[in-house]
Design a protein that fits this description.
- The chain is an alpha/beta fold and 570 residues long.
- Helix content is 52%, strand content 6%.
- It folds into two domains: 338 residues, no CATH class; 115 residues.
Amino acid sequence: MQDSANKTLGNSIDPIVTTGTQPPHNLKHWCWADAASILLLIVLAAQLLLISRRNSATYDEQYHIANGIYFLRTGDPGLIPAHPPLIEVLVTLPLLANRNLIVPARESTVSSLAYSDQLLWRLNQNGPSIVARARLPIIGLTLVLAVTVYAWTRQLFGPTAGLLTLTLLSFDPNILAHGNLATNDMGVTCFATLALYAFWRWMTHPTGARAVIAGLTLGLAQVAKFSAVYLIPVLMIILVTDRISKPTTGANRLTAKTTVAYLVVIAAAAYCAISVVYGFHVGTLQGYRFPAREYLAGLQAATTLIGGGKDSFLLGAYSRTGWWYYFPVAFAVKTPLPTLILIGASCVFVYRRGTWRSTLPLLIPVVIYFAICLASTFDIGYRHLLPILPCLFIFTGQLALIDWKTSRLRTAAVSAMVVWLITASVGTFPHYLTFFNEIAGGPDNGYKILVDSNLDWGQDLIGLRKYMTQENLPSVKLSYHGTADPTAYGVVYEPLPSYPYNQWTGDTVPDILLNPPSGVYAISANNLQGLRFKNHDLYATFRQRKPDAIVGHSIFIYRINRVVERNPTQ
């Protein structure tokens, strides 16, 4: 059946479908933009490696590393069932060569926090090195994402457009921030983009091989992070939209029966990818027998976790159920302003040229995913918007189709936006996690708008140690929001109420915070805003003061001298 369909299509369908704005672009034809893209990929890789060296372990990284090691040792995804194991396994691959790595035994009563803490900071003395090596596969996936985005844009709009898109990605602060962390946010972004690209390639020229590749990438996205389940309705809507519009792809010309047959192939390949990661197990879930039971159980656990909400902060307000406008605000203040302008210009460009149909495979995933985010009560960070960025970058890349000979002013405007982006990005190095654009007032003003992984994810222990060395401080009074051990990064400290360790669960404020004695206080932005505390005003006394310094935009330094404050004339 597949062979007959392929023979029929081979005589009537071009391998790559035009967009209505440019002729097809074959990846086999080398040009100057391809050479420039290689240089840009080298720059991207160098940035990611340098950033990784400057940042301490972030809040979630030890969980993902521990989950991967536990899964490889036991085959059980039960340490953190709400996260599928693919990315966790990938980040632990560089650790397998370490024969001296001590892996703790786990009893059923031991929490994932306690287990991961034992693994990285108690039993092994090289926690920072473990984290640094675990980040390497994510840097690799970020480069795969960059190549995919370039290739897709090049086929749609040409090599110059591909170079523009790759530039937008390579200097995007949010991509740079998460593209070097051992978490699954960049992993799902990479595999979701691969799945969309593979499905688009199948639609342009349906073959059995392309259907299998589309299915495998779809399956890998599902086991990268459970949020990738959104791809299933997205792909169906893209296909249906294509069929009811003017014929633009090879899939549009298939019969309904052949289309269904191809979809079965894609579904089967996706199931195989999921099963390879989880193991070909058939189990019972709520009284029914299911293949890939662990995947379904994990999806159910993730749904329960997200449905329960989480402590969130937005514009000075607190909520456990979030706000529908949380992600629109986050997108507005944490996306570079030149990128926002270019996205808007692309919308105008497409509208005037009447080429919106060819961009639907890019816009449909963005619209549906963003709509899901609006309905979510799990408002904890811009990082959850990462999967829409590649499609937006590709969509924006078509601005390179502007004829510079007849539209020099527009070309100059686009070029100015790119220069602005690069300048702003380089100026943020290496604190990309704390990036806020000019609308928000920059990174130093970000803590008044958003916290959590938008700003403070425990990444600045290295910066704090350097500050202490420069200021000749033997120790600080530290309120740290993070799972890493500060002493592993050379920080000598006296603990203050923090999270998740040294928690203060009462409604009252301890005297040390009401009337802080003399000393140097280092307080994470999350704790300063009281994000995870029952009493959000636990550090209100410090919020009323102007910090003496801010380390990496996320740790606020206060020097308190009671003698001077009691007698200002001294």
